[in-house]
Design brief:
By secondary structure, the protein is of the alpha+beta class. It contains 3 helices and 5 strands.
């Protein structure tokens, strides 16, 4: 009695396979959508960040990826030295610089040894 529904399910015909070209076109479409939503914007952000890091110069006011505000006092090949307070300098990898701030920003927030 318990086996009757299982027997009916087995005797049902298997669904017909779709056209493989439609499946292939669907997969290509999904990849194209993924490329334009995820991959392309990420590459653009990476390129912009690389340009920002390459253009770092002494006296630029920056914010790091960890939120530290400071003024660039030295730029080396892979590192940058930031003045974050009076008599306090830290050395960071260039990639840690997230953004260059407009001139005078640190003066407004009292960072990097600036007096208000």
């Amino acid at each position: 009695m318990f086996f009757v529904p299982a027997a009916h399910a087995q005797s049902a015909a298997a669904p017909a396979g779709g056209d493989p070209m439609i499946s292939f076109a669907f997969m290509i479409g999904i990849f194209a959508l993924f490329y334009f939503i995820a991959i392309r914007p990420q590459r653009k952000r990476q390129k912009e960040h690389q340009e920002l890091v390459n253009k770092l110069a002494v006296r630029d006011e920056v914010v790091t990826s960890s939120g530290i505000l400071g003024r660039v006092t030295a730029v080396e090949q892979d590192f940058v030295v930031l003045k974050v307070a009076e008599n306090v300098e830290i050395k960071l990898q260039k990639w840690a610089v997230q953004n260059v701030l407009p001139k005078g920003t640190l003066k407004g927030v009292g960072a990097a040894g600036e007096k208000k």
